[in-house]
Amino acid sequence: MTPERWQEIKGALNGALELNPGERAAFLDRACANDASLRQEVEVLLASDQDVGAAFLNECQDFKLIFESTTDSTSSAKLLEPSGAWIGQRVGPYKIVQQIGIGGMGEVYRAFRADDTYRKEVALKVVRGGEDSRFVVNRFKNERQILASLDHPNIARLHDGGATEDGVPYFVMELIDGVPIDEYCDRHKLAVNERLKLFLQICSAVLYAHQRLIIHRDIKPSNILVTSDGTPKLLDFGIAKILDSEAVTGQFEPTLTVLRLLTPGYASPEQIKGETITTASDVYSLGIVLYELLTGRHPYRRQNSTPQEITHAACEIEPEKPSTAVRRVKTTEGHCNSQGSSAVPHAGDSPERQSRRLRGDLDNVVLMALRKEPQRRYASVEQFAEDIRRHLESLPVFARPDTFSYRTSKFMMRHTAAVLAAIVVTVTVMAGLAVTLHEARIARVQQARAEQRFNDVRELANSLMFDVHDSIQDLPGSTPARKILVDRALRYLDSLARDAASDESLQHELGTAYEKVGTVQGNPFGANLGDTQGALESYRKALAIRQSLLHSNPSDIDSEVAVARTQRLIAAIIGNRGDPASISQTKQALASAEQAFHSAPSNPAVLEELQASYYLLAILLDGAGDYQAAAGYLHEELPIAEARLRAAPEDRVLRRELGRAEVKLGYALARMGSRKEGLDYSHRGVEVLESLAADGTDAESRRWLGMAHWMLGDILLLNDDATGALRSYQEELRIVAPLAAADPTNAVLQYDLGCAHARVGNALAILGNQKSGVVMFNRAVYMFEAQLARDPAYTEPRYGLAASHIWMGEAFTRTGNTAQALQSYERGLAGSEQLALHSEGTSTQAVCAGLRAKIGFLQAKMGKRDQASEEYQHALSIAESIASANPNILEAQYSLADAYSGLGELSQMQALYLSQPIEQQIRYWSEARSYFQHSLDVWQRIHNPGARTPVGFACGDPKFVAREIAQSDAALTKLQSSKSSGSSVPR
Asked: For the chain, what is the radius of gyration of the CA atoms?
């Protein structure tokens, strides 16, 4: 069938459906006067509509509505007729005993394994008799492939699959002995909170599928069965969409043009209209299910509704609020649950009480999921579930009512260019209002009016920054518009600040506004625009305002905490830019937090800021290489985290803070040499974070779980367990990749993703898979370079870039590719030296020393002994300077030991020239022994040396150095003996 032919059929069909059945024949006489086959096609489709319409109305059977069909005009009677022909037959090792489900393309049977291997009941699905077109078979196989890729406790699992002796494909699933979720909730009279918790498990299953690029497209109560123990299971991926084209097992027949399968009562508007299907479609269907669970009624379906009326309402009519709908539910209304009975949710409550329970947050959450435009719904199932979780924990939700700002965002999506221009004009008008306000205040006769205007403009400023901005921040491509808002709002706030010096409450608002603007511009701990310089300026303006407020009221704890927080944010920004002043700045923030703690030791905000300051200081000292000092501050932080959690044991954020604190402390201890203790802390932290990330809705806990696996992998690598490290790094990559894909403008997540690739590449190369390792290194290099192109002041990617080149050099060294290794080391050295320019006496400079030792080793292999000696001596001078100033910089100790060892090997090579005089040989062997002894002395200063340096680079081995000392001693003894006996050269 061609697209043109289908348009003719669809036009005639739509016209006929608009008429009463008695008027359709006359209409078809006119519309199909000269085309008998056209009339036949339309009449078949009209007959299907009459036969299966009832099933569509009550949704109590598992059928799919085919809006656009093919030339295979199977009658609707055949579509609905269950064959049951398989009962009693064996399919593979399974014997079929009972039919338990039937759909448009497949039949589901209860079966059991009958080959005496073991006894197990299963659900077996086969293609329906007569429905064996290539399209149906491919769709069936795709469903089987989808189930094979899904392993989640709330998704029915695939056990087996194959084809019968007649070539009919089948697959075997877990048998779910349960009832639809709406029926289960009603039968057990679950309260609202219990229904929400049950619903969250389904969100977790859908999110799991989305993360594997699978959209279900048919979520409804009958496809969600709840077992007797209260576990919900998501079923029927028969019309699921695989976004990864490589995962599709077959291609559909090209003649099956635009086939759309859907359930009208639960399909999203874009499904109905045939537009692009995304994960937002499943969000919509979940919203319908939640609406029914909370209200006992469908948002669009009414008694005797036709499929056309339902789909029209879904596309054009806004649903009423659940709190309003629940008051309308009556047992006579005709709403059908899975058993066909009327459903009144959480029975026992009066409609008024139910309405009060749903009013507000739950109204907003459900209606946000049901918005007509996909981009105005929750951006993901994860966000949807997060709002439900926040509601259950009595936290503010992100969903808002359909107010002016939401209507504004809808207009913005349609008229982006015009809106951007309008924003500029709006801000210009606001600036004019500010000037007008200033002039009005000068004139006493207009003072009252000026004050009113001031308040109006103040309210408008807050709306612009926090309503309009927030309404567009999730729109694709909205970053330029957000940047314009930030720039213009900053100018306006600066003007407003000059006029409000005496208004203390406004000063508090301005301080908060500048801090939020800085967070949008370059917050180092979350999504930002990558403008670190702009963020620094905004934070400094906030700090000046808050310090002024604290000076006016020194006993104000809130102002003390605000000052400490802003000082810490500034320290974090300059720390990410590589400025060593960040440590002293953080110590100022810590002093402010400690002062507040002395005044109010039990104040939650004070404890939160004190813990954050300890943590940031530990991070900066750790980055400088002083792991002992970092561990000291982490030891200070840990009891605060434990105390905060004891005060609020159900607080997920505090549990995450405790897990993060344990992981970081374990990491610092391991790098100091206490690897067993470090592993214990790290494993405890990982367990806490895994419990938080288990439901799949807590993005921050998932990010921290990824970081915990990174640190655990580093500890295992220090223990020379590259296999275990690779598993941890791969787990980190598995967690970080979907987070970064969901938020491509988040600089922090993109950096995390690059580091995860580099670490996996390093472990692969260590284990001998150099080719795959280099591929991962190159991906990481590309990501870091892209970040630096966007924000050259953001230094974190420079560290990742340098590390990637160094690890690549180590990989080439292992395989003997000296030229490539030397090139990689030189690139790593150039990047590290640039980072070390403003970080005197830190591990970054020690890394430079270690790199020069590595380059010296390669030059010695190439026979360039003079150049090698220069590199080793240069490495010594850098490492000795750092080690003497701060012996706690362990990276410098490792570099020092390797440089001495390298010089020893050079002298050893010289000593092995047997043609030289024996005195010369003795001198070189003595020199080699001296260098090796210096190296061993350094190794003995390191507590429990690791297999790699603390920052993860290859290093020497004290056992090797001890053997070389023994070899030098043996050679010297032999030479001395030869010299005494008068021999010229020992043999």
From this structure: 35
